[in-house]
Amino acid sequence: MNYIFETRMEVRDYECDIEGIVNNANYLHYAEHTRHLFLRSLGVSFAKLHEQGIDAVVARMNLQFKTPLRCDDEFISRLALTKEGIKYVFHQAIFRASDEKLCFKGDIELVCIVNGRLAPSPEYDEAFKDFI
């Protein structure tokens, strides 16, 4: 996969379940945070677009959990981006930093709601033009 963005994070103890591994729902938080950091790196404010009536929302997710992360593990969250019609597809993966072992991967499809209606977003197309 040709990843276009990455960020490092660390597992916090409260993100782990009774088995001592990261609860599956937290991977979605990690993935979303990575997408928001990616937008920020492009000079795009998710909040400002919302104020303009433009909301990118998750439409579908295909998730695979591979190797569990544990408390205090450092990890690298990476993403790639494609566009299919009006959908932006974020191909995301999380790797344990100590050994680059794949822990999570997901294809997360986003669509835009513009002023309350499903619609293309010239603003997102412009922000992503170098990648799609």
TrEMBL record:
InterPro entries: 4-hydroxybenzoyl-CoA_TE, HotDog_dom_sf, YbgC/YbaW. This is Acyl-CoA thioester hydrolase. Keywords: Hydrolase. One of its GO terms (molecular function) is fatty acyl-CoA hydrolase activity. It holds the Pfam family 4HBT_2. PANTHER family: 4-HYDROXYBENZOYL-COA THIOESTERASE FAMILY MEMBER, NOVEL THIOESTERASE SUPERFAMILY DOMAIN AND SAPOSIN A-TYPE DOMAIN CONTAINING PROTEIN (0610012H03RIK). The lineage of its organism: Bacteria, Pseudomonadati, Bacteroidota, Bacteroidia, Bacteroidales. Belongs to the 4-hydroxybenzoyl-CoA thioesterase family.
